[in-house]
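From the pipeline queue, job 12 of 40. The input is one protein chain; the requested action is below.

Action: predict structure.
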Amino acid sequence: MAHNEQHEQGERTVADYVIEVLISYGVKHVFGYPGASIIPLMESISKHPPIDWVLSRHEGSSSLAASAGAKLTGRLAVCAATSGPGLSNLVTGILDAHLDRVPLLAITGLLPSSKQGRLEFQDLNQSRLIGSIVSSTHQCSSAESLPALLRDCIGRAINDRDVVHIGIDSKVQSTKIPNTELWTIPHSANIFRNLPPRINDSVLNKFIEDLSQYHRIVVVVGNRAQGAGPLIEAIAQKLQSPIITSLDAKGIVNDENELCMGVLGIFGSPGSSISQNIIKNADAILAFGSDDPSTFLTGQDGVQIRPYFLCDLDFSSPSHFFYCSGVLIGDISYSADLLVKNLKAKSDGEFLALAKKTKAEFFAQHQLKPDDKFTSPINFLQALSRRINKISGRQTVKAFDIGDNTVWSALFLNLTKYQRVLQSTHLGTMGFCVPACVAAKVEDKNSVVIGITGDGGFQMCLGELGTAVQYQLGVI
C-alpha cells in the first residue's frame, strides 16, 4: 500500500477529492456529457491535467467508450453524467461492462437532498434504476461520507471486475473538506499479476497428469489471455491440439498459425463449421482466460459432456456452473510458461490432422474465383488483413459492432501480430464500434485504430465522429 504526498495546507472540494483519487488509481480519462449537477466535477477535471474530460455526443456513447477502455487496458474506467436522463442514457454501456466483467465507475450528479423525491426536474431514484443491473450503487448526500464511500466503490469495481455506481449531490460536490492524505493501492489494474505465484509443484503435476489422459484436447483462448499468445501456441504444439478463440480474443494468437482454427462462436451462434466439428470430436478442453464455457463444454441440452481444464487470473474466474477437472490460478502467462516447460510433447497428431482438414475444406468452399468481378467482403477483409499485418512498432486495435459485418470479420480477418479486438461480447449492442474506437485512440494516440461496423450501428453513434475530430483522433 502506498499513499500520495500530503497536499498543501487548506481545503479542497469534494469534487477535487474525487478526481485526485481517480488519478491515484491510474484513471486518465473521464468519458461524459455535461449537465448542471456535475459542473463542479467537470471544473475539477479541468484543474487536474493528469486526467482529461472526453466529451461524448451522447451519454450512451460515454458509457460504451468507458466500457471499451476498461476492456482494452484492464484498468478502472470512468464515465460521468448528470442526474435523471443522464443516468438513464448510461444504462446500455453500464450493462455492457457488467456482462463483460470489466471494472467501471459510473459517477452521476444528484439534485440537492432537499429536492430529492418530490418530482423535481430531472429527479430520479437512481439506486432503484441502476440497482437492477449492477450489484453496487450508492447515493452520497454528505461530504463526510464521500471518502470511505468512494474507496469502497473503487475497490469493489476493481476486485469484482464489475460496474459500481455512485451518485453525488451537486451541492456536496462543491463542499470544502480538509486536505488529507490519499491512501490508495498503486497500479491496481495489475494487482493479480503482482501477487506471488499460487501454483506449487504438486498442483502443477496433478494438473498435467490429469490432462495427459486425454488425446483430443482443444485449446480455447479467451480475452483475459492477453499477452500469452506465443506461449499458448507452444502449448498447443506440444499437445498437437487445435486452437479456437472467442471473438473478443481474436488476435491473441496468430490467425495464420496452422494450429489456429478461428472463432468458436459469434453472438451466441457457432463461428463456423470448423469450430463446430472440432469441438464435437474433442474429449477435453484446456481453456485460458475464457468466459461462457457452455459453448464448448455442453451438448445441445446444456449439460456438460467433456472435462474442463482452466488457467485464469483469480478465484472469481472459474465458472461455478461446470466442473473443472483442473485449475491453475494466477497470471495466465506465468501458468502457460509452466505448462510449456513441463508438458511432454505428444506424438499422436491424428486429431490435429483432422482439424486441419476441416479448416482446409471450409476455406476451399469460400475461395473466390479469379474472374469474380463483384466486390466481396472476403476480398476486402483479406486486403485489409494484409495492410494491418504490415504495421510494426504500433499497437493495432480493431473494434467490431454487431451484425453481418462482424460475422464476416470473425471468419476472414486474419490477425498475425498479437493485436487487440474490442466488442460488446455478451450484450451485443449495436453502436459499440465508434465509441470503442474513440476510447482506444485516446488511450494511445500512436496506435492504429480500425472500426468495422454496419450502417445501422454507425448511424446510432455517428455523432462520435465529432468527438474524434475535436480531440484529433485518427480512426479508420
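Job complete. The CA atoms of residues 98 and 125 lie 20 Å apart.
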